[in-house]
Design goal:
Layout: H1 2-32, H2 43-56, H3 60-67, H4 71-84, H5 86-89, H6 93-109, E1 111-114, H7 122-135, E2 149-153, E3 168-171, E4 175-179, H8 180-188, H9 196-211, H10 219-235, H11 239-242, H12 253-266, H13 268-274, H14 276-286
Parallel strand pairs: 1-2, 2-4
Antiparallel strand pairs: 3-4
Length: 300
Amino acid sequence: MLNYCTNIMTAEIHFILFIILVQGAVFLIKFSRDSQGKNKRSAWYDDLADALYFTITGEGEVIKRRKAMSNLDRGVMEVVLKRYNTFYQNLSPRNQIKFQRRMMYHYSEKRYFAKEGLKLTREMKVVISAAAAQLTFGLEDYELPRFHTYVLYPDIFQLLKGKPYLKGGTISGGLVYFSWKHVKHGFRVKDDGVNLAIHELAHALKIQGHFSMPSDYDWVDDLNVWLANSAEWIQQASKEDQEFFRKNMLKDAHERFATAVEVFFEQPVEFEERFPRVYRGLVELLRQDPAKGQNTQVRV
């Protein structure tokens, strides 16, 4: 009887130790998955870490779906990224792998719909998912889980009959709308400060931040500081400098953030020169500094 009890206690101790080790492994893998700076891990390490993390935490279905993507999907991704996305093109090989991994999440885990006779293509899905990966590239929380559906129209559209025509729209209930015509313009003309996909996804990121960003836990506090001060910083500038932004920049906090993020990626050097405090605030929020190069992630 004594031996039996001893065996039971030993088994329980082993089980508890196993649980502790697993939880420790999950924490370490989660902590290290997207770390930058001095960490020089190779791509295979990242892939192994992701595989272990998703397996241990029960999120293996995500990996399975990504692996199930066809070679055609992957081929289209490579072609489209080279055609449209200079942010991706200027990344280091290791950061390109990180970008692809994050982009594939938005490609495979979000729902896409095309309206008004527009035929949904792989190219459209790649361009939108790449914009999401670009916007959130410096953040731990890149999935925008509150937003489950991306809807594309051929050109400007009305969400409700009798309402104004729009190029894009973001609904806190989980939908983001895009005019495909204007999305393409945003990536084909790379330095005019206008990028519809980035703009609408910036709205989504702002909304997401107010609901939940557990790994970037202080993000919404930093956002509120930026929103509270950025209008004043812009208004203190010369009229010439203020004209650097579009006229609706100061319309409201939502437009100010989304418009500033567009310019942050498209004209970062001039942005920093004209409005250094506004720009540096976005660097801290997005954890990246495109004026210094796409491979510069910022740890704050």
